Amino acid sequence: MTDLSRPPTALKNTRPFWHVPLKVSTETIARALLFLTASVSALVVIEPAPYDLLIALLLVGWSFFGLELRKDVLPLLILLCFYIAGGILALPAATDTKEAVIFYAVTVFLAFSAFLYAVTLSSKIERLDAIEKGYLVAAICATLLAIAGYFNAFPSAYDQFTLYGRAKGTFKDPNVYGPFLLLPTLLITYDILTKPWRQSIFKAGILLVLLLGAFLSFSRAAWGMTLGGAFMVFLLVFINERRSVPRLKLLGILSLAAIGLVLALIAVLSIESISEMFTERAKLVQDYDGARMGRFGRWGEGFTLVTERPFGLGFGGFNAIFPEDEHNAYLKAFTTYGWLGGLSYITLVFWTLIKALPLVFKPRPWQKYIICTYVAFLLHACVSFIIDSDHWRHYFLLLGILWAIIAVESGIARHRRFPPAQ
């Protein structure tokens, strides 16, 4: 029988020995959600994707529990709103109103996902680590399934994870899967270039897997982005490194990488099926590019049309005139979002590139992220001239990361110019 004469504090000892109070900080939950969101970002073969649901959850959650809005990310928000407004104004011209509403709703969702990343990361830039780890998990899983699918490692794997003989993993299109692998490839490349050899062996193995996955996508854009991006990261690391010995190490790594790439390419091309597909896909201009009404021919006709229509052609309007899509994100911005949307989109892309460029040369703890994200975004912006990247989820992630770093750097500059009063 309990002695009620004892003070209440003494009763704490009566708890079971296995009782341990669980304390999880808000920051831990935030990073866990960011990691989870990034880790499912490759699973987009179904609609709505788990990534979409988690982004919606984060948008609602952060809005209620303290979404910190920095003035330095307002240009991103304003230009995205103008971009969306252009789509709304173009809605009456759409060939199918219901489909157009769904299309523009996806645009709104993706635009706010970029804004979400910008504000959440700018308040604590260290959260980038959680996104990096989650993104890497997503890339590895998608790549392993893509490779398994290409070589038909298990029943129906080929049907599930390839398209037209090209690896696509958990994506609907190989041309999206390939570029998706670019950011983690660049991040691992940066680590190999800047960290001791012993810490790079495991990551070098992961890098080989990602490179094989990108190769088997047989996406010309992915090939060019991967090779060009890795070389650009090397150049930026080399330029930022002032010491002679580390520079010699970098040159040695570059030489070994070049030799290894040639040997790997020879080994892979010894497989007949891969060699045939490579020969076909390696052509710089395909038949559907250079034909009279091919990709390049449609661009000139399309830009001529939009000069006469300030509100654009509306969703589906280009397809009603031409046999295929624009395959040019900048042209599509004008045809589908009108002059307002097109000008806003182009302004946002170039403003982002100009604002972020000086930051790649500043020594910061997050220099890896600004260099790799900037290179990835720049290459995506270039590839957007030949492909419709306006609804790529990871493209808006890159945009959000860059504006988060821009906001952080702007805050540092203001603090140095106007230090707090003592």
UniProtKB/TrEMBL annotation:
PANTHER family: EXOQ-LIKE PROTEIN, TEICHURONIC ACID BIOSYNTHESIS PROTEIN TUAE. It is a multi-pass membrane protein. InterPro entries: O-antigen_ligase-rel_domated, WaaL-like. Its main location: membrane. Residues 206-346 form the O-antigen ligase-related domain. The chain crosses the membrane at residues 52-69, 76-95, 101-122, 134-154, 174-193, 200-216, 222-239, 251-271, 337-357, 369-387, 393-413. It is found in: Membrane. Keywords: Membrane, Transmembrane, Transmembrane helix. This is Membrane protein.
